[in-house]
Amino acid sequence: xxxxxxxxxxxxxxxxxxxxxxxxxxxxxxxxxxxxxxxxxxxxxxxxxxxxxxxxxxxxxxxxxxxxxxxxxxxxxxxxxxxxxxxxxxxxxxxxxxxxxxxxxxxxxxxxxxxxxxxxxxxxxxxxxxxxxxxxxxxxxxxxxxxxxxxxxxxxxxxxxxxxxxxxxxxxxxxxxxxxxxxxxxxxxxxxxxxxxxxxxxxxxxxxxxxxxxxxxxxxxxxxxxxxxxxxxxxxxxxxxxxxxxxxxxxxxxxxxxxxxxxxxxxxxxxxxxxxxxxxxxxxxxx
Length: 287
Known about the structure:
By secondary structure, the chain is an alpha/beta fold. It has helices at 32-40, 74-78, 94-102, 115-129, 132-151, 183-190, 216-222, 238-247, 252-256, 265-268, 273-286; strands spanning 27-29, 47-50, 64-65, 84-88, 107-110, 158-161, 165-169, 172-176, 193-195, 213-215, 226-230, 259-262.
């Protein structure tokens, strides 16, 4: 995944209705989680191009690379003669999407901000490809989501802080996180967590407002019970964990030493990775 923080993106162009007489056969995916989902659902043999950050599944065969998620190479994509390009509003640059459409390429722009959006996207995908086998897999994931929701229904929410970027602002550290209008926040809510910065707004902008910056004082005052440290989009290492244990020793998380480093894609990647997240994250949160 591109390791640069979320940046403000202008409002994307209106999404045209994608019509195909037959399911598309040549796909280019510009989003790592969508690449993984295509393979998981049985459509991997149609993928002819992916980004440099598309590393899953680990068994992915050789496929043409078209650059990064934010700087995909337009000409390389065109040389693959795709009949559909899959993109993400927050992951990919608007000019790339507009240029592809101007050249007659159909582009499906995804933008799930919660689990319902994610599941609807998967249903649209399996409907587009008209695959009964893939539909069964999405039905199974639907049941997993329902089971997770039932499991936490009577629980008191656990207060969680999850930074996704760290930087120095002058002499002071600050962290980017996400509010409750985002997919990762909804996954945490499904698992019985309360995002301590769920109501915070980031800088004004089409998408930037969903990703507020917080300071040391902000985190201490929010008093999280657990601090989650993902390895992407920013890689929070053991040294970062040690630093935070000192900075936030006075919080409930600090007193209980609940600073959890984990695989960030479990929270950030929308698509079929949700199934894996529902199997792994509850144990991490419980411990």
